[in-house]
Sequence to fold (64 residues):
Amino acid sequence: MKKRFSASINIIADQKFGKDMKKKKDKTIQKDVYTYEKKMEKKKEFEDYVNLVRSVLPDRVVVL
Fold:
């Protein structure tokens, strides 16, 4: 039986740069931040998103 793939990408920024971003208070830094979350069911789609963000922000991408 093939394993099902499931992943999500979370982007956290100090300013809003997309209409789908939500504002929330970050308790660790006591500031408002903007977050975006996208859930994916396909590994290729996930890898493409990670590579895209990495191409723009190479030192800021963390994959857990």
About this structure: Strands lie at 7-13, 22-26, 31-40. DSSP finds one helix and three strands in the chain. The radius of gyration is 14 Å. Residues 40 and 46 are 6 Å apart (CA to CA).
